Amino acid sequence: MSDHYLKRRPRRNRKSEAIRNMVEETKVTTHDLIFPLFLVEGSGKKIEVESMPGIYRLSTDLMLKEIESCLKLGIVAFDIFPAVEETHKDKTATKSYDPGFFYLKALREIKSTFPEACIMTDVAMDPYSSDGHDGLVEGGKIINDKTLDILGKMALAQAETGIDIIGPSDMMDGRVGYLREVLDTNGFTDVSIMSYTAKYASGFYNPFRDALDSAPKFGDKKTYQMNPANSREALIEATLDMEEGADFIMIKPALSYLDIIKLLKDALPLPVAAYNVSGEYSMVKAAHHRGWLDGERVMNEILLSIKRAGADVILTYFAKEFASARLR
Ligand code: PBG
């Protein structure tokens, strides 16, 4: 065979596992992952989220156990969301900054039990809002600047529990700069901000809204979350977040937005996070359950694709499963 095309054989670099491993460009490690967890009030509670098999709403006592077992597996970072009873919700999300509320009490307990764990919190009104929106609703509209005031109180109350990173997920204008100022003037200069920079108005959040009972009571989130058709807008959001003092920028969801991950990674020097969201998790679980694909294999491929696109950090419901699978 003298065909000159065949003098070049890329398959040589795939011929054995040893060589494949040598030339492997991207590796996902447990250090890259943040595990989102859902907290409920009470004790002894472990309630599976129906649309997210393997993911539970946990009361503080069981969450402490869960965090302990994750730490042993090498997962060191957690993003904790509260599932709030309807009776505790109101127009202005008052419970979000009540230091006696179970979420803030739990954060304090988690940080004092596991000071080495990196704890991230969510800053947005939706879990506490009787309107189910991320911002304050007046006359059917989301009021940006009045929302900032509430987010500031929420962020401060969370910072006071000793957490490491706040994650503003609300998409209000100016909130990163405002929260940085509130944190700094109150002595919390060490609390990081991982901004939900390019958060799209996505159909992939539904299982999360089931987990927290946080679906909007009217309308949708399109006046604050981004249009899935747009990428240039992500550059505006990212530039502003950097100017306003974000420590990390986040893209969310991940899989339908790999191009945005790459775009922001190339455009800015900040670390990039991607949120592999609830619906992305549920799709894999549902298909695996039906025998339509191999869930573990697809999980690895998905996490790899997010990292290859440029994410330094991945928030994923697969975190514990990924860590356990590596040890087998
Ligand atoms: C709300 C928030 C959402 C998620 C994280 N924070 C949902 C929403 O905007 O409705 C979604 C996460 C997921 O789907 O896994 N501030």
Structural class: alpha/beta
Fourth-level CATH superfamily: Aldolase class I
What share of the residues does DSSP label as strand, in percent? Answer: 15-25%
Assign the CATH class: Alpha Beta
* CATH architecture designation: Alpha-Beta Barrel
Q: What level of helicity do the residues show? A: 25-40%
Low-pLDDT regions: none
Question: How many H/I helical runs?
Answer: 11
Number of strands: 12
How does this model look, in words?
With 328 residues, this protein is an alpha/beta fold. It has a single domain (28-326), classed as Aldolase class I (TIM Barrel). It is built from eleven helices and twelve strands. It has helices spanning 17-22, 60-73, 102-113, 144-159, 175-185, 206-212, 232-244, 258-267, 278-289, 295-309, 319-327; strands at residues 33-40, 46-48, 56-59, 77-82, 118-123, 136-138, 141-143, 165-168, 192-199, 248-252, 272-276, 313-316. Strands 1-4-5-8-9-10-11-12 form an eight-stranded parallel barrel, surrounded by eight helices. A two-stranded antiparallel sheet has the order 6-7. Helix 4 packs parallel to helix 5.
